[in-house]
Amino acid sequence: MFTILDLVQPDNLAEAYQILSDKRNNTILGGCAFLKMGKKRINTGVDLTKLKLNYIQETDGFIEIGAMTSLRDIETHPLLTEHYNGVLPQSLRDIIGVQFRNGVTVGASVYSKYGFSDLITALLSLDTEVELFKAGRMPLADFLSKPKEKDLLVRLWIKKTKRQASYLSFRNSASDYAVLNVAVSMLNNRWTIAVGARPSKAAIAISASALLSLEGATSETIEEAAKRTSEELSFGTNTRGTATYRKALCRALVKRGIMEVLACKSN
Amino acid sequence: MQIELTINDKAVKWEVANDEFLADTLRSHGFLSVKKACDTSCCGLCTVWMDGKSMLSCSVLSLRAHGKKITTIEGLPKEAEEFAQILSAEGAEQCGFCSPGFIMSVLAMKNELVNPTEEEIIHYLTGNLCRCTGYMGQLRAIKIYLGVA
Ligand SMILES: Cc1cc2nc3c(=O)[nH]c(=O)nc-3n(C[C@H](O)[C@H](O)[C@H](O)COP(=O)(O)OP(=O)(O)OC[C@H]3O[C@@H](n4cnc5c(N)ncnc54)[C@H](O)[C@@H]3O)c2cc1C
Ligand code: FES
Ligand code: FES
Question: Is the ipTM of this structure higher than 0.90?
């Protein structure tokens, strides 16, 4: 079980960041469900409750999501159920249960870059930017490829567009971590294919996405894009599945994802 | 630190440790309906409401209850008894250890979903595990309780 020696509830972000940086073991407290599973000895726990980071709103053509927003709020908020074919709510629905999703936060879920993450894969298929207190605002893909640095994730920005999207995951049993997950999206015939739980963190299949964008989605290019995704991304083995199994799953899920997006378009 | 909260409509001031979890605080103050089983967010036995939303009290820091309205099954005797009677009539209870958390989730679902389908009911309750029954009795009981049988 983790321990927290001191606790602070800063009044502003600068103070929160300062305390976080003061000592190696000072730690931001999100919903604490994941922290609780470890044995970390936290010197000062930084509780962001007073910073009012629990919100979802529309700002200048973006959907803005505060770091302390719960996964359940994302799942049920009209802005997110009504955009991108509800791909974000869809990605969250199999994470444990409602009570769990009421407690865990989006900031922790994205900042931690968990390989198994359902949310990150779905966000990666959209035009998502991450705003960190020190490192500033950057595309989610850039954040994921950066080495991990101590920072405070403040909010997410998702460009509000008519992007059509679809999310699929394969689980050995309900509410277990995904063996593999896939999100596919399309805006003005430009496609994005993201694959997560490989089991390493989610990544965009750049070549396969470009193929569909350049040549359009026909039965041949869909087959080719699914195959190319499974070849250009790497897969690993863990207790949930082997690399070979994941590669085969990837091909099937990507194909289904593309078909689902096409079905959205014709609706 | 000291937290001020409302527990089952009664205002209280409690002293809690920085790393104390709500399930432990509630149990130490006599709210023994709140069970702890997995203690890793997986079983739903510790479900209580925070400002009307169901939460896993084993995984929520007690300090987060400051200024909030916490409800345990002790605070909902009428609703709990009504549903528990249907549960037992449908043979959906054996050891009963999962029942308080399960009932809190069912009551939260009743407040949140209007005329849910069977699929919506099952999905809403995936976070509540029961090691004794096969869930079918519980599903029958819920449908009767919600009038969607
Ligand atoms: C049993 C279990 C099963 C799970 N299953 C799944 C699953 O199937 N799919 C899935 O996608 N996810 C799953 N998760 C992960 C979950 O969805 C959350 O992402 C995770 O619990 C972290 O959220 P939290 O609010 O609990 O974070 P915490 O435990 O509070 O924090 C986690 C880390 O993030 C840091 N942190 C918190 N907030 C910030 C911030 N704003 N800026 C910078 N750092 C921050 C903390 O310091 C800590 O290091 C699971 C988690 C658990 C415990
Ligand atoms: S004891 Fe809280 S979820 Fe199992
Ligand atoms: S009745 Fe025994 S765990 Fe559910």
Answer: yes
